[in-house]
Each structure stands twice: as C-alpha cells, then as structure tokens.
Amino acid sequence: MKRRGLSSTQSDKLFEQIYDYLLERIRRGEWKEHEKLPSVRALALEFNVHRLTVFKAYQLLKQNQKVYVKDKSGYYVQPGLGLSLETRNDPIISAYVQESHLSEIHQVQATYQFSKALLDPNLLPNLYFSEYVKKVFDLYPKVLGTYSTTQGDQELREALCQYFHKHFHFYLTADELLVSAGSQEAIDLVARALINPRDVVFLERPTYSPAIDVFRRQGAQIVPIEIDEHGYDLDQVEQFMQLHKPRLFYLNPTYQNPTGYTVPAEQRKRLVELAAQYHCLLVEDDPYRDMYFGEKPPLPLFSYDTSGAVIYIRSFSKYIAPGLSIAIIACRPSIMKVLIKAKSLSDSGTPLLNQKIFLHYFFSERMQQHLEKLRIALSIRRDLMEEEFSVTDWEWVSPQGGFTLWMKLPQTVPMDALLSKSMEHSITFVPGLICDPLRESKSWIRVCFSYLNEQQLREGARKLISVCNMLQQ
Ligand SMILES: Cc1ncc(COP(=O)(O)O)c(C=O)c1O
User: Where in the numbering of this chain does the HTH gntR-type domain appear (predicted)?
Assistant: First the structure.
C-alpha cells in the first residue's frame, strides 16, 4: 500500500482546528459578546499558518453565525454564544460528538462482534482462576478489608520492576511505577495531570479513538501525525515539533489499534531523541506487546529513554485478565508526583484484591505458557479472516500482532449505510472515521479478529462482505 504523507487535505483541515479552537475560547467567555476578535494576521502568526487558513476558519464561523463582520474593522463575537452554547446545532462540533458516540456500537448486542478489541473469554484459562483467588485469600486474609495505596501495591510494583528490567532493560525503582485500573484510566490521568487548555497534543492518525476524546475534553489542540506500516515520517515529526511545540505525543507504536502497524526500532530511538530535544513527552501506550505472531516486536520507546521524555503505559487487561483491569504507568519521579495526585482525586487506589490476584497469576508458570497458546490461536484467527476477505478488493496490511485488521473499502461503499445494514444483520465493526483526529477516513473500517471463535469469524466475515456487495449493486 502507498505511504500516506501529509496530504493537502490534511493541511486544508487545519482551518477546522482553528475554528474549533476559536469557538471553544468564545464558549469559555474569553471574548465577550460584540468583542473584537484577533486579526487574521495576528492569528496566522500565532499558529504559524497561512493567513488564508485563518481566513477560512473565520468564514466558517461567520457562516455558522458565531461571529459577525464589521466592514473594514474585523470579526466580532455574535451575542448568545456563552457557555450554554447548544453544540447540537453546530455542524462541526456536533459531527464530532456524534462520531464519538459511534463508539457506543461496542454496547450493541450483536452475534458478530467485530467491533470489540477484546479477547475471546474462551481463550483464557478460566478454570484455573479460582486457584489464584483462593491463594490470595490464604496469603492475605485481610485483603478485602484493606485499601491499596494510591500508587499501587508495593509487592506488585517491585515484581514488575524486575520483570521490566529482565525483558525490556528498564532501569526503574518501584517508586517509578503506578498501578492504574486499565490503560484507559492511565491515559485519562496523564491528560488530566499534564494537559492544559490549548496545549498542543500530537496524536497518531489514525489512533485509539477514546484518546481523541480524552485529549479534546482537556481542551488540547490536536495535531495529527500520520502512521503507516513503515511508522512515521520523522522529518515531518521534527518539523511539527519545531512548529507546534507539543506538550506530548500520545502513541501506540506496537501492533497499533486500529491499524496493527508497528514502528521500527530505528525510528523509536530517533523519536526519543527528538522528544528530548524538543521537550515533548512521549506517552507510549503498549497493551498488545505480547500478542506477536512471528518475531518479537522492537523494544518499547521507554527502553531508549535516558532523559525522562517517555511515559510508558502497559495494560495487562487485554489478554491476561480483562476482568481485573490492571495497567502500569512507568515514568520519572517529577511526573509520577502529579499522576499520583491526579489519581488520588478520582479513587483511593486500584482495588488491592485485583492487584494481588494479578501478581500471583501473571508471574505463574502457567500464565507464561498460556501466552504462547494465545499467540497461536490469534494468528490462526488473523489468517482465517484474511483468507475470507481475500475475495474482496478491500486493502489492508497484514498485522504481525494485535487484535485488529484495518481495511480500506472502495470509495463507492456508503459507510453509514454499511454500518446500519450490518447492525441489522447482527454485525458490528468500527468505522475508521472515529479513529481519525481529522474525521476524514471515511473508507476505512476496523475489524477485530480476537473476540469471536473461528466459526463465527468465518460466518460474520461472509455476511459482512455480502451486506457490502448488496449496497454496491
Ligand atoms: C491502544 C489502547 N489503549 C488503551 C486501551 C484501553 O485498555 P484498558 O482495557 O486497559 O483500559 C485499549 C483498548 O482497546 C487500546 O487498544
């Protein structure tokens, strides 16, 4: 497949980001009714963009009656747009909100759930779980009567320090690890602790869609970084770092959700150097690392970090024990301090019982053997799905790990109709649009092969193809 660099459409869409940004500031009351807004020239200088880009943002604001123009004087805030602004009537904001709501398709009950990036529960050694639960109650009889510390169980953090050191050459102390209730919570903590409104955040394009929502909610200005099967265009990343001075870059460089792409080792090293040079934190989300189908993936970015530029998030909930919801954040003490503070505002620590069960289960011989079986089962499911979809003219890059196929459908396929018709046939998938910070990837879909069994995968894939064919006739 072709490499996707910065497309002209992408730079065109900068004006939408400026639109969002200006509207957000108006909504927050930073400019009052009838107050004059900054000139096109001043904003172009502030954002380092062409004046025409700012002009287009203003034109759209005018068209949507958010601002009005006084001849030869400039743009003024339209009255009645304060914090109570009803976003439903706003074409751009409402489009975004509705697309985010599409992630609610996870809630839809369907026979063929291709939307869930979860493991088939039948692939876990369910029968053995109770042994570990009993062991935990024997070892820690007061476990149910105790809170964890906010940072997480000391015994677990020490065991994980050794594990990270042995497998990934992390040099850490237990004080540099925090146990969170899954990586979703970890992303949220990072955003709440480190991002202020208007901070620039780099997100991969496409990316894990809840991350877009979390950083947007925080008021971040989002700059997309294209990812493809070869990784990033690092010259462009450097240029963007110089230009936008980002606070952080959230990335999922190993069997990325949704694409399955993996950033090569040499890029990881350079990216860490760039981050240190431009004072940009790298937030490395790494939930699929153990799910490789051939060679092991390159080391995490965190392994290359000597300056404290990387915050490493490692969820164990995807394939160890989803029901325990355990993830780890590794980072240097100055950042750890603010993360602990942020976590203490939302809970009193990740449940201790979950942490202790995870500790004994994860480090058991049985779990490590089980991972090998999981990899084989998942690679068989990937092969099977690729075989089913090989009869179509859909395009994808075969993932070497992870849970997802990221497929490009012909442009003639009406995506909204495909989603609704598929749901009628009890099939769900994730439309690529919700994974795209620019909300443009209309022809892409994410299909997970991890959740259904082999027979359901085959049936579901065939049904999905036939729904799609029906729509194209
Ligand atoms: C890249 C990525 N980050 C975070 C998460 C959330 O993981 P958790 O279940 O640990 O909260 C997911 C789940 O799909 C994911 O794919």
Answer: 12-80
Ligand 1 atom nearest residue 186's Cα: 11
Cβ count within 10 A of residue 393: 8
Averaged pLDDT in 10-residue chunks for the chain of 473 residues:
36 76 76 86 83 91 90 86 41 40 66 93 88 94 91 98 96 97 97 94 96 92 96 97 96 98 98 98 97 97 96 94 94 96 94 96 88 96 98 97 97 93 94 90 95 97 97 85
CA distance 237 to 141: 52
Q: Taking CB atoms and a 6 Å cutoff, what residues make up the pocket around ligand 1?
A: 117, 182-184, 208, 252, 257, 285, 287, 315, 317, 327
14 CB-near residues (< 8 Å, 6+ apart): 47, 49, 53
Q: Choose among 368, 362, 435, 425: nearest CA to 404.
A: 435
Please answer whether residues 60 and 102 qualify as being in contact, where contact means their C-beta atoms are separated by less than 8 angstroms. Answer: no
Domain boundaries, the chain: 8-85, 97-123+367-472, 127-364
8-85 is classed CATH 3.40.630.10: no
Query: What does CATH list as the number for 127-364?
Result: 3.40.640.10
The pLDDT assigned to 125 comes to 84
The H or E element containing residue 416 is helix 415-424
Q: Alpha-carbon distance 329 to 315, whole Å?
A: 9
Predicted TM-score (pTM) of this structure:
0.81
pLDDT at 104: 64
> Domain 97-123+367-472 belongs to what topology?
Aspartate Aminotransferase, domain 1 (3.90.1150)
Cα of 287 vs centre of ligand 1, distance in Å, is 6
Of ligand 1's listed atoms, the one at least distance from the Cα of 327 is: 10
Which residue has the least CA distance to atom 10 on ligand 1? 182
Q: What is the pLDDT of residue 72?
A: 79
